Amino acid sequence: NAGVTQTPKFQVLKTGQSMTLQCAQDMNHEYMSWYRQDPGMGLRLIHYSVGAGITDQGEVPNGYNVSRSTTEDFPLRLLSAAPSQTSVYFCASSWGGDYNEKLFFGSGTQLSVL
Amino acid sequence: AQTVTQSQPEMSVQEAETVTLSCTYDTSESDYYLFWYKQPPSRQMILVIRQEAYKQQNATENRFSVNFQKAAKSFSLKISDSQLGDAAMYFCAYRPTGNQFYFGTGTSLTVIP
Predict the structure, then answer these.
(1) What is the reported pLDDT for A1?
(2) Which of A45, A92, A43, A108 is nearest to B43 (CA)?
(3) What does the alpha-carbon distance between residue A46 and residue A76 come to, in Å, rounded to a whole number?
(4) What distance in Å separates the CA atoms of residue A91 and residue A50, rounded to the nearest whole number?
(5) Which residues, at least 6 apart from B32, have a Cβ–Cβ distance to it below 8 Å?
(6) How far apart are CA A6 and CA B18, in angstroms?
(7) Dist CA A58 CA A91 (whole Å)
(8) Would you write out chain B's pLDDT as a tens digit for each of its 113 residues?
(9) At a CB cut-off of 8 Å and minimum separation 6, what does A80 contact?
(10) Residues 12-41 of B with CB under 8 A from A
């Protein structure tokens, strides 16, 4: 049981480049989400999904796209990278419906945009 | 708006002593869950403890306990007999009905040998 798998662990981009952060979970979780972590700002929600085909925006969605074609996968796309998107990104998942359930986190992606 | 406030950016504690990390939240909900997560230098997010809002009894997990004051919307974490391995960033999180989690800005805990 791998849990939540995020790739890559590190990435350096140039301004204007695009890329996709991958996230997969093998726990059949309905809820999946992407957070960014910046010093002094905690974890801020970018996008989330409550099931295949259903996505919604979080607190800081601008510059990011998501889709959920399967229960297992929830990729995050940076359309045109900007230095302000330099951050640590976490994918997290949970069972839906019962809000007692904790979030399971991936190991994070350190992204630098030059 | 749902907000979670951790007013202590940094805290330190002597090994074997007790430390309390503060967290307050803003909500109009009556039913929700609260969590404390630990993030060591490895960056991995680890659940420390969780509390159901409808339970008056404070949650306890070994050396970790909470002081949950629902009326005051306060959810502090007490770490007893602090160990070097407790050094980490600690995040308070709030989950109302629905699926979203709201996190505080974190408290960096240093444990002094």
Answers:
(1) 64
(2) A108
(3) 9
(4) 14
(5) A99, B53, B94, B95, B96, B97
(6) 35
(7) 13
(8) 558 999 999 999 999 999 999 999 999 888 899 999 999 999 999 999 999 988 888 999 999 999 999 999 999 999 999 999 999 999 999 988 766 889 999 999 999 99
(9) A16, A17, A18, A63
(10) 32-33, 35
pLDDT at A7 over 90: yes
Task: Tell if the CB–CB gap between A90 and B97 is shorter than 8 Å.
Answer: no
Single out the residue of B13, B37, B31, B4 nearest to residue B104, CA to CA.
B4
Over residues A38-51, the pLDDT tens digits come to 988 889 999 999 89
State how far the Cα of A50 lies from the Cα of A59, in Å rounded to an integer: 16
**Which of A3, A13, A85 minimizes the C-alpha distance to A44?**
A85
Distance of CA A77 to the CA centre of its chain: 9
List residues of A whose CB lies inside 8 A of any B CB. 31, 33, 35, 40-45, 48, 50, 58, 88, 90, 92, 94, 96, 99-100, 102-103, 105, 107-108
Cβ-proximal residues to B18 (8 Å cutoff; 6+ apart), any chain: B78, B79, B80, B81, B82
Q: What is the per-residue pLDDT for A40?
A: 84
Rounded distance between C-alpha atoms, residue B10 and residue B71, angstroms:
26
Tell me the residue type at B42.
S
Residue from A53, A83, A18, A33 nearest B102 by CA? A33
Q: What angle do CA B70, A45, A48 make, to 5 degrees?
A: 105
Please state, in angstroms and rounded to a whole number, the distance separating the CA atoms of residues A75 and A54: 13
